[in-house]
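Hi all, posting the design record for the shared folder.

TITLE: backbone redesign
STEP: 1 of 1
STRUCTURE INPUT:
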């Protein structure tokens, strides 16, 4: 039995690359909700005054979001490049308008990202 669909939205800032980077999530009021950093050896999340350590960025995302997210592919997508990874594909049709839709094709773990880019 699948769980209930979950949805959330957040403003974010993504810097670095797939190997070493930082993803900061902001609340609707503009406060930092969480800051995640990663290297090939580990990943760290700072949120609510706590620091949590993970073995990898994938494990961090699984814990935080509840599903695997292709953070590495995000770098390609926000640059307007098509990249298929771990069952995810991105629709860049509206990229010139600053919109990206990405979907995981696995029906048992379906997920969708809708990104609105600001420059």
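Okay, here is what came back for every position:
SEQUENCE:
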């Amino acid at each position: 039995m699948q769980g209930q669909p979950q949805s959330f939205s957040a403003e974010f800032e993504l810097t670095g690359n797939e190997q070493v980077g930082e993803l900061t999530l902001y609340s609707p009021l503009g406060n930092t909700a969480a800051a995640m950093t990663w290297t090939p050896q580990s990943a760290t999340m700072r949120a609510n005054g706590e620091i949590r350590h993970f073995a990898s960025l994938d494990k961090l995302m699984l814990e935080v979001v509840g599903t695997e997210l292709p953070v590495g592919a995000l770098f390609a997508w926000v640059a307007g490049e098509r990249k298929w990874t771990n069952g995810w594909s991105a629709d860049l049709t509206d990229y010139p308008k600053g919109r990206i839709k990405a979907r995981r094709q696995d029906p048992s773990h379906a997920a969708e990202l809708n990104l609105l880019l600001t420059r």
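COMMENT: The longest helix spans residues 57-65.
Let me know if anyone wants the other runs.
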